[in-house]
Amino acid sequence: MATLAPSAEFRGKLRKKGRALQETWAKNKNEDDVQALVPVATLSKGKHQTTMKEAQSSEEDPGETLKRTLRAQRQRQKKRLLEQSSAHESHDNDDVEKISTIQPQSEDRGSAEKAADPMNLSKPPSGAQRGLGSGIQHSPKNLDDIVTLHLQEKLRAARPASRLQSLRDRDTITRFDREVDHDGAGKHDVPLAIRTRVKFREAAKRAVKGLPTAEEAYGFFTYNFEPDPKDGTVRMSRKKQKQRKTVEEDMGEADEQEDSEVDEDNQDEKIGQSEEVPLVQEEEEGLFAIQQSSQDFLEVKKAEYRGYRKLIQRESELLFTPSFRTVPVAIKLPENMKPRYLEDEGLYVGERPSVSLTNENILENRILKMEEGKKWFGDDGRIIALPDPIKESSTRPPLIHMEEDLDPALQTVYKKALKSKYAGLYISSAADPEGDYQLDVDVSGLIFSHHPLFSREHVLGARLAQLYDQYLTRQHNNLTGHLTDKLNGLRRGLRNMLEIHGGQCLTQAVQQRISEYSLEVQNTRQLRDSEQEKDRTLLKNMVKVWKEIKALREFQKFTNTPYKLCLRKENVDRASDKQEYEDEILAEVVELEAESEMDYQRKLAEYKKQLEEWKLWRRKQKTKKKKRKKKKKSQAQGDTEDEDEDQEVSESEGPAEEGPPKPEPLEKPDLDSIEQQVREKASRIRRKPGESILIPELSASGNITAYELCPRAEKARRDHVAKCFLFIKILYNNKEVSQTDSRSLSTDFRVHFGQIFNLKIVNCPQSINLQVFEEIGSSCSLLAQVFVPLPEPSGLTGSVPLEEFEFSSNQRVMFDHEGVGSDVPLSFEADGSNKQILMTSGKLACCVSWGTGEDGTPLAPPVSQQPSGIRSGLGYFDAVTYIGASGLYDMKKIGEWATQSRLDPNDPKNASIMQLLKVASGGEVTAPEYFRLEQLQQEFDFVTDEELDRSKRLRLLRLRNQEVAEFRNYKCVPALEREVTDEVFQEYEKRLKEGEIIDTKEHLDPHRALVAKYLQKIRESVINRFRLAKHHYHLSDLVIEEEIPSIGILGRNLFKLAEPKRPLKPQRKERKKVTTQNLSDGDIKLLINIIRAYSIPIRRPQSNKPGQSSQGVIQGSDWLLSQVQVRPFVEVSFQRTVLQTTTADGPNPCWNEELQLPFSAPNGDYSTASLQSVKDEVFINIFDEVVYETGVNDKDRGKSVHTQVERHWLGSVKIPFSTIYSQTRIDGTFKVNTPAVLLGYSKERSYGTNGGYDILRSLSEGAFITLFITIEPQLVPGESIREKFDTQEPEHLLQASERFERDAVQSHPDRPCITTVIDLNGKTVFITRYIRPLNPPQELLDAFPSNSQEAMALVARFVSLIPSLPDSISFSGACDLWSTCDQFLTLLAGDEEEHAVLLCNYFLSMGKKAWLIIGTAIPEGPTAYVLTFEQSRYVIWNPSSGQYYGQYDTFCPLQTVGCLVNADNVWFNVQQYTSPMRMSFDTTKAKLWKPFFSRSFSHPGLSSVQPEELVYRHIDKAAAAELQDRIEKILKEKIMEWRPRQPTRWNRYCTTTLKHFLPKLELSGGQDIAEGHRHELQNLLGDNRISGFPLNLPFSEIRPIIEAVYSTGVHNIQASNAEFALAVYVHPFPNNVLSVWVYLASLVRT
Amino acid sequence: MATNNPSMFLLTVNGQIEGANFPEFDNLYCKYCFVYGHDWVPSSGLEEGITQITCKGIQSSHKLIWNFPLETTFKSTNPSGWPQLVMSVYGPDAFGNDVIRGYGATHIPFTPGQHTRTIPMFVPEPSWRLQKFTSWLLGRRPEYTDPKVVAQGEGREVTRVRSQGFVTVSFHIMTKDMKKLGYDTGPSDAWALPK
After folding, report:
1. Which of A99, A230, A509, A594 is the most buried (most CB within 10 A)?
2. Total structural domains in chain B?
3. Which residues of A touch B (CB under 8 A)?
């Protein structure tokens, strides 16, 4: 456009010149602007300049936000505009808005940014700049302010802008014009406003006409506009000067004015803008009528970009990043100062709290940035810091001497919990449950003696009523009359007395009486006088009040009260009355005279006496004076005695001066005045003679002025009264029990309730409280409380009269009507003097009494039961109420109270207090200086510990809770202490005692007793250790969840479908496991499947008795036939239940029978722990059934044959229940323990030879039995403790071992792998530490010096003789503890691992190659065996039996080999097979054996836990012999005990033979000599049928021996002629290891 | 009033398992049993029982009514181990398998008088997703090894449960000699003083 282009050029030229000018101009501009806009523009100019500058520099951001908000607004508007392009009015608005947006940024951005807005083209930059100051200035305030201000600003900017645009066309008018205009606007605002508007419109029109094209616009924008046109500058600068002056002149008012005026001026527009309604509603329509092009609304905008540098720059203005670097000292200190180090000067400087150097540097840098930052630095250039405040030692006193005598101040004192006052006060205590009590509370009514709503008249009326009441009571009592009568009587009496004795000399007694009489008369008279006076004043007062009422009624012209006082006159006989009056006065006068006379006499006597005394004193005084004078003379002569005498004098002088004063002489009483006085008094207090008696009568018959006739104030009062309601709440023991109906207040301020409340009570009555509530409208306030005394138990309903209880309230109430209020000064005098303050008060009529039942029985507590003290002496008995709760801690107060209330020290109730007082008086308890935590602990203790121990019931409960075995399932602990019998604890206490004193009889050996004790202790500690772990649950313990079938299982299931339904050889199936917690007696059964046996010994033909044996016994030497000649059966005994199979034939019988034995857990406790500790064993005995003919009874054709069945024990297998439980099933062939010698039987020999090695010669010797044992239902065996134990092993070793075991389990889950074990202290120890060569007892080595095999066997036997005790039994948890060899030998008990370790160590010390085998065997389950390598053969040793097997022995009990252990390494079996027969023991082959320590993880050189050498105790033969005798004696007794029906005869000859034989057996190890022995016996006892066998046992206790003997059943022989032989031999080994041989035989004479 | 010095107190529980609210399920039956401490002995009545199967009515679409009476008397010496009623609700699932629908337990109220208890029920959750699916498919939902587990606190932390449904039980409680043994069960006991 033509018009625009020159203007652009023009501007371009001016740019340079204008810049310099702009600065000055802008400054002025800003000042001007700011002043115009800041609402409080009273600041001086200079000040403004500084603030302005600051604002410009720092408060940039708010401007930005503002800009943004405005832009958003504009966008909205733009949109709207495009939508309704026909709405022309809004264009104007739009224009304005666009201008405004540029304002905040215009100064900073410069022209380049201005150009970004295409709409800016028509605005001179100056216009844009104008708004800058204000926007910035006010932006920190809240947005509303900003917006309004800004809108205001916009408008201002808009006006000049449009104007300028129009001016630009004319090329003449410059800014100044506008400025002037603008300034002018302040002076004549309204016309200017119109003017601007007109101009504005013009401008708008013009703008519409000449719109620039886009390019032109762009070109225009790319220019850097200078604020002013050139030609304007000169003028402007000139005019500016001028303007400044004007501005300065107008500063005060104009600015403010302008601001506000402009505000008003553009009000409508502003509203329009902010609410986005069309701006100029009242403008003419044609303003924007011209068609508009799209450019009008299109905004071509460059992408907004903020230069990075600028950003940085701006940020650097705002942000400060403290540097990490150390600040040089010089900066931190004031100039020209050197750092001064106090420490160097020798002063103490505390240690500063440690702060890292970086942090300190940052802090210093930060502080330095601040103003006055330097003050934070000390003289040494460091930040001032206090020394480290943390104390080095704790301030709390150490409590080391806990156990010993504690500081008395620290001792906790038990205080009984304070009972709630009403807690224990049930009347119906257990002793008297029949109690049924009822209190009747009769609330009759209420009268106010003062109420805030009283009118003045009411006040007076109430007073009158009160006085009248008083009068009535006085009248009723008639004290005056009584006294008058009494006086007359006395007088008469006196007169009589005087007349009788008339003038004669009076005796002392009579005189005495007379004086008494006269004194009495005198007193009575005085009393009467005072009463009469009172009567009189009362009457006077009544009259006075009544007069006042009357006056008041007259004054206020209405009547409020119905009171009416009448004075009834009672005429009297004037003469007699006068006579009486005179008489009275006379009598009185006479009396008074007499009295005064007497008085005078008495006083006179006294005076005389005093005078005498005085005179005496005077005399003395005089003599003294004389003396003194003398002394004074002598004083001059000698000094020596002076002082003493002086003192004497002074001493004597002292009292002398205080001598009696001279008594005053008495005056004679004035008798004349007496009469005068009497008369005066009489006239004052008595009615005048002849005056009629006045009797007041108060009636309430007066009329009350009707409501309509009252003045307004009175009406208001009456309204108020009518609104007032009252009710009474009844509180029993401070608990609300009932309340009366709400009754309205009557005009005479009386309320009638007349309600009786029956309270059925349970608690002892403490208090009955009636609360008077006033209800006005909806508000309700407590007016007063009335405490009603509790009735005596005799006070029954009907007999107790209504009582009136006064109450009052100190509430302050004031009214603006006639009501006088309460607690408000009130005066009835005209001048307002004599003010009274009246409080709300009144009387409540009520009574409380004990109710009566329907049949008339009183419902009151018995008199004795009611604690008498409760009511009468609440404070007397209750210390709390007496001294207050806080005082309870004050000993002195308690003591005071105790003495005051005279507590009975013998009353058990007071024992605690007495105790306390004793303590308190005994020694002052000093307040502790310590702060104690948990001082309340004892408060929460249920009972004291002693009580807990003493109480049998609590003890029982406690033991049960502790799960002590005996009480774990104790049912029904008695509720009462006395019902707990002592027997309950007997067993437990016995056990406890046993724990301490081991029964030596049972153990037969003091050493064993000690060991048992030690074992017991370990057991307890371990049990404690595991108690917690037992209560850990797994999900499977609680929730049954089907396992997800894996593909393998699915496949197998599918495969199963193809299986035959009833296979010929059924497989045993896995059963569902049952947790043990829900079981009870009888639920569990032990299933024992006895399948078959091999090589049962056969009967040996009794060669010397041919023809006598029964038909079953086949004679001769027919070996093969004789094999049939054994009829074995199996008997299983478990927990004293005995079952047996059928009898089979032959030495290799097949039973295939299932026996079910019930199982019951000890104490009915089926928990895992309990089951694990079951010590019972399953005895499986094989017997031979022998049938004898006892002879043929051939009397009757010889048909009946009597047979006798005998059974002979052949051997047994023992399986502990714990093994079955932990294994869940036992399946296999077991070697039967057969005695070394079985008399009458011969062992079947296996025919195959096992090769050349002679240790193995007897490997497969002996009988075997195949069994399958399990528990029904299948029980879940206890899991091992899921806990980590302490350890001293290095961490990496533990990790490696964990890894090793985990890998082992993953690859071969069925092979046991152990690398770490738990020792007796509960610590984890690496297994190789247990292996170390240890010397066996020298005796054993000496026995076979040449034959190493024999020696090994002996050593193995020695080890096997150490009793075996499974850990799971001793420790009731499935944890395996390993003891070292010395511990093992000391304890003389252990399970397979200990045996194996010991045996292995012995073999190693004997120079053999030995390993420990960790594997599984039957029947033990997971166990440890020993492997030796000798003569290129591997031999497996069972350490607990001493047996040894070759690698290829089929009957070797070892089934699985998991790993091998020696001192250096652990090898895990990774071969295909686990059975020793099929595997190689060559550990060097890494393919077969995976070593723990390999090249990659070498052996760290673990030291052994074993001792270097074992020390053995020598063989104690004497002890062994003693033990032998005792065992024999006990066994003999037992056998006799087991045969209660028959006599038990002992064959002494046989016994001695057997006794000689036993040592040989021991020496031979039970082999080879049987044959010879048999022959020997046969020879000796030729004609006896003998059956018997020797038993060999390791010795631990006597009980197992007895069990073993019992299980053989030798004693069961029923033959009447049976004899027995018993021999016991105890062979001692070193270290108290004993081998016990018992030879038991029965002899039947045939 | 047999003796003045009782050594046991009696607790009589009369009431009924009124019904249940299982919005999703139908044809449910309920098994109940009492769980009590060592010192408690049931002296009469059924300790365990099983209700009839009930299905929802037409009118009250959510209510399952059993109205199964409970009548048990306990005697005890010790309030510890106060009896708890353990309920387990079963019903058929979509495939007709009998599955657990909820476990719940409540203490027998100890104040004499009438009480109504609404017992929220819950079931153990399968331990993982797949398990959830298979258990749904096979109708073998996880169950407690023993319903009495819900009456004890020990070991519950290892389980995860989901709540479903409510069972309403009403009780009428009578006690005897509790007060004489020194157990005060509240004001209602005091009001029930013998005449």
Report:
1. A99
2. 1
3. 426, 428, 430, 433-436, 762, 957, 960, 969-976, 979, 1031, 1033-1035, 1037-1042, 1044-1045, 1075, 1077-1078
- Closest CA–CA distance from residue A974 to any residue of chain B (Å): 5
Tell me: the pLDDT tens digits for B86-102? 999 999 988 888 899 99
Measure Cα distances from A1404 to A1358, A1400, A1439 in Å: 16, 6, 14
Searching chain B, which residue's CA lies closest to the CA of residue A427? B190
Q: Is the peptide bond before A1273 cis (omega within 30 degrees of 0)?
A: yes
Chain A: closest CA distance from residue B178 (Å)? 10
The mean per-residue pLDDT over the stretch A880-887 comes to 46
Question: Residue B20's pLDDT is what?
Answer: 92
Let me know if residue B2 belongs to a domain: no
- For residue A926, pLDDT beyond 70: no
Q: Does residue B140 sit within a domain?
A: yes
The alpha carbon of residue A734 is apart from the nearest alpha carbon of chain B, in Å, by 17
Q: Is B155 left (phi over 0), alpha (psi -120 to 50) or beta?
A: left
Reply yes or no on whether the pLDDT at A3 is more than 50: no
What DSSP string describes A439-481? EEEEEEEEEEEE-TT--HHHHHHHHHHHHHHHHHHHHHHTHHH
Which ipTM value was assigned to this complex?
Answer: 0.80
Q: How near does any CA of chain B get to the CA of A1314, in Å?
A: 29
Tens-digit pLDDT profile for residues A57-89: 444 455 455 556 556 666 665 556 555 544 444
pLDDT bucket at A277, cuts 50 / 70 / 90:
very low
Q: Is B10 on the interface with A (CB under 8 A)?
A: no
Q: Which residue, among B119, B123, B108, B111, has the nearest Cα to B70 in the 3D structure?
A: B108
Per cent of chain A over pLDDT 70 is: 59
Domain with B107, as residue range(s), is 9-180
- Short-list B14, B32, B11, CA closest to B167: B32
CA-based nearest residue to A149, from A69, A239, A84: A69
Confidence (pLDDT) at A933: 62
Beta-carbon contacts of A692 under 8 Å, excluding residues fewer than 6 positions away, are: A569, A570, A571, A572
Contact B145 A1040 (CB under 8 A): yes
User: What is the value of pTM for the model shown?
Assistant: 0.45
Average pLDDT over residues A511-531: 82
Q: What is the pLDDT of residue A1519?
A: 81
> How many residues are given for chain A?
1646
Task: Pick from A1042, A1075, A1076, A1276 the residue to mutate for testing the B interface (most B CBs within 10 Å).
Answer: A1042
Coil vs helix vs strand at A853: coil
Gap between the Cα atoms of B76 and B37, Å rounded? 9
Q: Is residue B4 in some structural domain?
A: no
Let me know if residue B191 belongs to a domain.
Answer: no
Least confident of A14-18, A639-643, A1226-1230: A639-643
Of residues A957, A1040, A1077, nearest to B142 (C-beta): A1040
Whether pLDDT at A643 is above 70: no
- Category of B140 on φ-ψ map: left (φ > 0), alpha (ψ -120 to 50) or beta: beta
E-strand stretches of A750-812: 750-761, 768-776, 779-788, 803-809
Q: What is the CATH number of the domain that holds B101?
A: 2.60.40.150
pLDDT at A750 over 60: yes
- Using pLDDT thresholds of 50, 70 and 90, give the confidence band for residue A153: low
B38 interfacial to chain A (CB closer than 8 Å): yes
Using a 10 angstrom Cβ sphere, with 0-12 exposed, 13-18 middle and 19 or more buried, the burial of residue A1056 is exposed
CA distance linking residue A1171 with residue A1029, whole number of Å = 16
Interface test with A, best of B145, B146, B154, B195 (most A CBs within 10 A): B145
Q: Give the span between the Cα atoms of A1575 and B86, in whole angstroms.
A: 74
Question: Which residues, at least 6 apart from A59, have a Cβ–Cβ distance to it below 8 Å?
Answer: A136, A137, A139, A140
